[in-house]
């Protein structure tokens, strides 16, 4: 049997669709973004 190949772009789009339909994953991503932005603001004030 021949193996079906999937391009990187297709994998990214599929993963993105799955994440957008998962409220728990979205909340976790938002928390990480908030944490990173607050860390960056702290570094900028120093």
TrEMBL record:
It holds the Pfam family Fur_reg_FbpB. InterPro entries: SenN/SenS. This is FbpB family small basic protein. It comes from Halalkalibacter alkaliphilus.
């Amino acid at each position: 049997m021949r193996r079906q190949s999937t391009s990187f772009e297709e994998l990214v789009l599929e993963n993105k669709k799955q994440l957008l339909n998962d409220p728990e994953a979205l909340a976790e991503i938002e928390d990480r973004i908030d944490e990173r932005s607050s860390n960056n603001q702290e570094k900028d004030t120093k």
